[in-house]
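[job 4471] stage=fold_predict status=RUNNING
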Amino acid sequence: MSLDDFSQWLVGLLFVSGILWAVDALVRKDKTKPPPLYAEYARSFFPVILVVLLIRSFVVEPFRIPSGSMIPTLHVGDFILVNKFAYGLRLPIVHTKILSLGEPKRGQVVVFRYPKNPSIDYIKRIVGLPGDRITCFKNKLYINGKLIPHYHKKPYLYTEQNGQALEAYRYTEKLGQITHHIILIPGLAPGKRMHFVVPPHEYFVLGDNRDLSDDSRYWGYVPQRNLVGRAFMIWFSWNTARGGGIDFKRIGRSIP
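[job 4471] inference complete, writing structure tokens
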């Protein structure tokens, strides 16, 4: 079930429980008798569903990381929290912005609805803002003609989900005010020079696992209306790489 499907189910359950509760209140003449079972359940579930819907729609929402495109920042099996009001309040299902509270900044990690299939949620890091000129060539990234340097090269133990080990290196990168880590895998970077100009109200995103990330280099830009929120914390982590088990060291980490 997609997140939009889940929101629709919540709205539907809220509507049905509210109608049943209201009908019982209107048609039951003897208020001293206990309400029928359906009305009792409706009265109990209505406020719970309402609170869950409001929190998921306007405050915070949990997500699970299913792929390695954001390694080393986020691992497969990490469960994260996303700030839903960082870029404004939106109505559930229709995603219409009703209140603007801020704009995305370069370097922030965001969850968004995949432009090619909005029922799928992606997570990447914002690299290009509206109007920016982006150039990607091999392992080099240029923003508005300025090379974004990589620091502190360190070997990184990278194992694909099929168990294959790859030579990889971890680097430190700074985008805007945010310092974070990326990994680069020798020989996998695209060999052609790619140029992009970010359109108004859209964003250019990359994965921190630069050479194994399906991102804006291949399918384009993220419209502002597709943004779900800013990822800010790992609240739980299941270590899938070592056969399972809770990874306590990752729980509670903030997401740079």
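[job 4471] summary: The chain has a mean pLDDT of 86.
[job 4471] exit 0
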